[in-house]
C-alpha cells in the first residue's frame, strides 16, 4: 500500500487525514515531504512552512490549519491567553485528543461524512466529471504551468485531498451542472454564483521563522478590536454534514467558520488506486461586502459605487491583488494604521488586514519585540472570462520589522510609505523620458512608456526591500528616507541612460514638435535634460547631476522658441 492509496480493514476504503501524509511541508533544513495533520502540529517547530502544488493551495491549507488550531485550543481568548501559547513549546499537545474526537469527519473517503464533501452528491444523469474541474493548474481549455496535459485522469488520495480544500477556497465561477436536491437549478444548470471565498480576497498572512510561529502569529484573539468572533463559532467538521442544497441564511460566525466555509458541494469518485472523477456544484454563497469585521486575512477598500448601488452608508470590499504590482508598492494598504473616524469625519478609504492589526497589537502591548522580523505574504488568484478560469496567481512577500506596525513608531511606517511614493514619482519621470524619446522619433508613446515604467519598478524592487529591512534599525528615519531618495535617483538615472543609449537614430536626430507654448526641436538631448530635472523634482533633490551641458539642455538650447517650456501635457503623467 502506498502512502497515497486508501486503506481497507474489512470495510470501506478509508483515507484518514489525521494519520495519512497529505500536507506538503518544507523542513527548516530545506528538505521536503508530506505529513498528516497530527504530524504537522507535532513537528510545527521543526518545519519552515507548508507548501502547495500552487501558492493558493498553501493559503487554503494554512486557513484549514488555523481553523483546527482555533478550535482545538478554543481560543486564544485574549492577548494573555496568546502569550501563554507563544511561550509554551508544547502548546499543540491537545491536538491528538481533538482529532480522536472528530475522527470520522477527517476521513476523505468516509461513506457518510467524507471530508469537505457530500456523500451522495449526484446529478440527474449520474454524471462524473473530469478532475480538471478541481485541479487549478489545469484550467478548463488552456493548461498553464503544468506537465499534466491535456487533462488530469487520476489523482492519489493525498493530492485529491489538497484540491478538495482548494476548491472550496478558489473554485472558479461559471455555469455548473445542477445536482439533485439543489433548489437553485434551472433546466439542469446552476448559473454563476461567484468564486470560492478565498478567491474574492487579496490574501494576506504573516510568516515567522517556523510553521509554529506562523500559526501562532496568525491566531487572532477573540477579543481583537474590529473583529467579531461569536461564542458559537465552529468549523465545518463540527457542523451538520452538508446536503446538496445551500444552507438558508448562513452568515459566518467567526474565523473558524470562515476558514472552513463550504462554498462548494463536492463528491470524489474513486477506487482502491485513487480518485478518477468528481461531482462539483455550488455550496453556501457568501457576499463579500462589509465582512471586514469577520475576515482578517485581506485588506479592504471602501466602495462608493457599491454604497450608491446598495443604498448603504458604508461598504467595504476586499482589496484584491494586482499581479502587475509588487507587494512593496502597495505597502500603505498593509501597514497604514486604520483611521478612526470621529463624529462627522469621513470613514477610512481603506483598512489594513486584521491580521496585521493583530500583530500591531502584539507589538504595542509588548508581546513581540520591536526588532522582531516578519514576512508579510500576499497570495491571490486573478480570474478571467467572467471568473470562469484562473488567469494568474499572485504570490509575493515582504520582510517587515514589526516596529513599522507599532503605534508609537508611526514615523517609521510613514517614511516607508513615503519612500514608495518616491519610487512612483521617479518611475513617472522615467516614463516621461520614454514618452519624449518616442515623440522625438515620431513613434507612439504608450508602449515605450509602459515598458519603461515596468523596467524602473523592476530595478527598484530589490533595493527597496533591502532598504525597508534596514529602516527599523535606523535611529533617524528621516535620514534613511534621504538615503533612499538618493539611491532611487541613482538607479533610475542609470535606467534612463540605458533608454537613451537604446533610442533610435531618429530620436537622436529629432524633429519639430508643436507644443502649447511654441515649436520645439525635440530630440534625445532635449529629452535627457528634462528627464534629469523631472527626476530631481520628483525626489525633492536640488543638487544637479553636475554637468553644465545638462543645465544648458534644460535651459532651452534646443528650443526653437525659448519660451516653449515643458513638452505638451499629453507627454507627462
UniProtKB/TrEMBL annotation:
Residues 549-573 are annotated as: Disordered. InterPro entries: CRISPR-assoc_prot_Cse1. This is CRISPR system Cascade subunit CasA. It comes from Streptomyces pseudovenezuelae.
Amino acid at each position: 500500500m502506498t502512502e497515497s492509496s486508501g486503506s481497507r480493514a474489512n470495510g470501506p476504503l478509508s483515507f484518514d487525514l489525521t494519520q495519512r501524509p497529505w500536507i506538503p511541508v518544507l523542513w527548516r533544513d530545506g528538505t521536503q515531504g508530506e505529513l498528516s495533520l497530527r504530524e504537522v502540529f507535532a513537528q510545527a517547530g521543526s518545519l519552515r512552512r507548508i507548501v502547495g502544488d500552487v501558492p493558493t493551495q498553501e493559503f487554503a491549507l494554512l486557513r484549514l490549519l488555523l481553523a483546527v488550531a482555533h478550535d482545538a485550543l478554543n481560543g486564544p481568548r485574549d492577548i494573555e491567553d496568546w502569550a501563554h501559547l507563544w511561550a509554551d513549546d508544547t502548546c499543540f499537545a491537545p491536538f491528538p485528543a481533538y482529532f480522536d474526537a472528530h475522527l470520522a469527519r477527517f476521513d476523505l473517503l468516509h461513506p457518510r461524512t467524507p471530508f469537505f464533501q457530500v456523500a451522495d452528491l449526484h446529478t440527474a444523469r449520474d454524471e462524473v466529471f473530469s478532475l480538471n474541474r478541481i485541479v487549478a493548474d489545469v484550467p478548463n481549455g488552456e493548461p498553464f504551468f503544468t506537465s499534466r496535459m491535456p487533462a488530469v485522469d487520476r489523482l492519489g488520495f493525498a493530492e485529491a485531498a489538497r484540491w478538495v480544500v482548494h476548491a472550496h477556497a478558489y473554485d472558479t465561477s461559471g455555469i455548473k451542472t445542477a445536482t439533485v436536491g439543489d433548489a437553485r437549478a434551472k433546466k439542469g444548470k446552476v448559473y454563476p454564483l461567484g468564486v470560492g471565498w478565498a478567491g474574492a480576497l487579496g490574501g494576506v498572512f504573516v510568516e515567522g521563522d517556523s510553521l509554529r510561529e506562523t500559526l501562532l502569529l496568525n491566531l487572532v484573539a477573540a477579543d481583537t478590536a474590529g473583529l467579531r468572533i461569536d461564542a458559537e463559532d465552529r468549523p465545518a467538521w463540527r457542523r451538520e454534514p452538508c446536503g446538496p442544497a445551500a444552507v438558508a441564511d448562513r452568515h459566518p460566525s467567526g474565523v473558524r467558520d470562515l476558514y472552513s466555509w463550504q462554498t462548494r458541494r463536492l463528491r470524489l469518485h474513486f477506487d482502491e488506486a485513487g480518485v478518477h472523477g468528481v461531482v462539483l456544484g455550488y455550496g453556501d454563497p457568501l457576499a463579500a461586502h462589509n465582512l471586514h469585521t469577520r475576515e482578517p486575512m485581506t485588506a479592504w477598500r471602501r466602495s462608493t459605487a457599491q454604497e450608491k448601488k446598495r443604498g448603504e452608508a458604508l461598504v467595504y470590499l476586499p482589496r484584491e491583488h494586482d499581479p502587475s504590482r509588487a507587494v512593496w508598492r502597495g505597502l500603505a494598504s498593509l501597514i497604514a494604521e486604520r483611521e478612526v473616524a470621529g463624529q462627522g469625519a469621513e470613514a477610512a478609504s481603506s483598512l489594513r488586514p486584521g491580521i496585521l492589526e493583530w500583530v500591531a497589537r502584539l507589538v504595542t502591548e509588548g508581546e513581540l519585540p520591536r526588532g522582531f522580523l516578519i514576512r508579510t505574504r500576499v497570495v491571490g488568484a486573478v480570474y478571467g472570462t467572467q471568473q470562469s478560469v484562473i488567469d494568474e496567481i499572485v504570490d509575493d512577500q515582504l520582510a517587515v520589522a514589526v516596529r513599522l506596525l507599532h503605534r508609537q513608531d508611526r514615523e517609521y511606517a510613514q517614511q516607508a510609505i513615503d519612500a514608495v511614493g518616491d519610487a512612483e514619482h521617479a518611475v513617472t519621470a522615467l516614463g516621461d523620458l520614454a514618452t519624449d524619446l518616442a515623440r522625438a522619433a515620431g513613434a507612439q508613446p504608450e508602449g515605450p512608456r509602459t515598458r519603461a515604467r515596468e523596467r524602473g519598478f523592476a530595478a527598484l524592487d530589490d533595493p527597496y526591500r533591502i532598504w525597508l529591512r534596514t529602516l527599523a534599525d535606523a535611529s533617524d528615519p528621516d535620514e534613511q528616507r534621504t538615503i533612499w531618495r538618493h539611491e532611487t535617483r541613482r538607479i533610475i538615472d542609470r535606467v534612463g541612460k540605458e533608454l537613451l543609449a537604446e533610442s533610435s537614430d531618429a530620436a537622436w536626430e529629432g524633429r519639430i514638435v508643436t507644443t502649447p507654448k511654441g515649436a520645439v526641436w525635440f530630440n534625445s538631448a532635449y529629452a535627457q535634460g528634462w528627464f534629469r530635472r523631472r527626476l530631481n523634482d520628483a525626489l525633492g533633490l536640488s543638487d544637479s547631476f553636475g554637468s553644465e551641458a545638462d543645465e544648458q539642455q534644460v535651459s532651452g538650447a534646443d528650443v526653437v522658441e525659448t519660451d516653449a517650456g515643458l513638452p505638451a501635457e499629453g507627454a507627462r503623467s
